[in-house]
Amino acid sequence: MDGNKDEALKCLKIGRDALESGNRARALKFVTKARRLDPSLAVEDLLAKIEDLAGESPINESSSASANVSDSESGNPGVRRRAPAASSSSTSSVAYTEEQIAIVRDIKKKKDYYEILGLEKSCSVEDVRKAYRKLSLKVHPDKNKAPGAEEAFKAVSRAFQCLNDEESRKKYDLVGSDEPVYERRAARRGPQGFNGFYESDIDAEEIFRNFFFGGMHPATTAQFGTFSFGPGMGARGGNNGNAGFLRTIIQLLPVLLILLLNFLPSNDPVYALSRAHPYVYRFTTQKGINYYVKSAGFEQDYPPGSPQRVRLEREVEGEYVNILAHNCRLELQRLHWGLVRETPHCDSLKQFETMA
């Protein structure tokens, strides 16, 4: 019963908010649902307001009103459906709140980066970081399931990426917030913009991870060109021929490394912790850690109980513990920020330590 009362109060609040925003159908739906869950609630005044808003005939009893709303939502106004039971109503809750919807809508309406983060132009870098920390957690798609949350998250990330860097912020302040002009001109030259803060395909998740979990400075981006303001504005290359030659060498470097590796002698590891070709023969250490080797004659090269076998299995267990410890640290960070609730790698690490 207490669970029904709590659910009824939630439905009543949603109904009031919908009535204030002028959404009569939503208000009627949740008010009648609240009355059905807790008949002792005083909802007559709200129902009267909903009736006045619609300018229609007096509202029927809660059961018939609920059936009519269900019929209108399904697109069959002439068919009456039975209202769902209270127990099923209490378990069917929306995946996002009105507050989350409002935050997403508010961010998507704004174009200026300062307005998106809720800051003045005189704000400090620390103010920018605080605003990003607060907003990114509110609109991160893992926590906010409202429609448009991903776009809002990217907008917050773009604003932070720009304003957190002194040089890109100066350029942005010089140009102002007339973003469509840059988008039109940049469209002819690809997605590149100055310092990356007008790029349409930024990695918002990478910015988020770098900010909260360490790594490179979030505003650090690889630049191979500069941005020119004024007539003929657009991305341009280096300042001289030497810069262009250096850029060509950098672009060819991966190909040269691949060619070089092909001529080096192969030095594959003896084992792997996961089964993948050609590591298909499974063995297990004394502490129960599985590992895989390539050769069927592994036991001839590493006889059981030999110093070579003992040393190899210690190396296997050491690598296994390092992987668990690394993943455990990431899980604890995500748990601290409320992104996950379980830490399986930390649990496995504790279990292994107890065995040791």
Any chance you could write out the topology, listing elements then pairs?
Blueprint: H1 2-20, H2 24-37, H3 44-54, H4 62-74, H5 86-91, H6 98-109, H7 113-117, H8 125-139, H9 149-163, H10 166-175, H11 179-187, H12 204-213, E1 226-228, E2 234-236, H13 241-263, E3 271-272, E4 281-284, E5 290-293, H14 298-301, H15 307-336, H16 344-355
Helix pairs in contact: 1-2, 2-3, 2-4, 6-9, 8-9, 15-16
- Assign an overall shape: flat
Helix content: 55-70%
Number of helices: 16
What ranges have pLDDT less than 50 throughout 5 or more consecutive residues?
56-92, 178-200, 215-238
Describe this structure in words.
The protein has 356 residues and is mainly alpha-helical. It has helices at 2-20, 24-37, 44-54, 62-74, 86-91, 98-109, 113-117, 125-139, 149-163, 166-175, 179-187, 204-213, 241-263, 298-301, 307-336, 344-355, and strands spanning 226-228, 234-236, 271-272, 281-284, 290-293. The chain has 16 helices and five strands. A hairpin with a 5-residue loop joins strand 4 (281-284) and strand 5. Helix 1 (2-20) packs antiparallel against helix 2 (24-37), helix 2 crosses helix 4 (62-74) and helix 15 runs antiparallel to helix 16 (344-355). The longest helix is centred in the last third of the chain and has 30 residues, at 307-336. Residues 56-92, 178-200 and 215-238 have low confidence and may be disordered.
